[in-house]
Design brief:
The protein has one helix and five strands, in the order βββββα. By secondary structure, it is of the alpha+beta class. Strands 1-2-3-5-4 form a five-stranded mixed β-barrel. The model has no long low-confidence stretch (mean pLDDT 87). The termini are far apart. 20% of the residues lie in helices and 25% in strands.
Length: 128
């Protein structure tokens, strides 16, 4: 086997499973494209993307030296997709123009403490 990590090779789809696609690189060498390496984004069913005997150009991600298993990728050859055409803005969960700090919490603290003490006394009364 004369393949190296990073080589871009052509192969033929020989099998489709729920977890990935098997690709025959030559008469003796087969590799696997894991479902996560098939395309950017979510893949519901690999049978929708691939057919048996389909010819693909893939890149070699890894070669296990002991088992000689080859990991392949289509996604690494694709350009990154832009999810939105509009530039992203940072989203603030609070109003950044209001600078109250912790004063609303400090103002309501006595009420919260009183409510908890009341609940604690009620539980003690039930246990006795």
């Amino acid at each position: 086997m004369n393949y190296r990590i990073g080589d871009i090779v052509t192969g033929k789809v020989t099998g489709i499973q729920a977890y990935g696609v098997f690709v025959m690189l030559d008469e003796k060498t087969q590799g696997l494209i894991h479902i996560s390496e098939c395309q950017h984004g979510f893949v519901k069913d690999l049978s929708d993307l691939f057919q048996i005997d389909q010819v693909l150009e893939v890149i070699i991600l890894d070669i296990d030296e002991y088992t000689q298993k080859i990991s392949l990728s289509l996604r690494a050859l694709q350009t990154d997709i832009e999810l939105s055409e509009q530039p992203r803005r940072k989203h603030y969960w609070t109003n950044r123009k209001v600078h109250t700090g912790f004063s609303p919490i400090a103002a309501s603290l006595p009420d919260h403490v009183a409510e908890q003490l009341h609940d604690l006394e009620a539980k003690k009364g039930v246990q006795q």
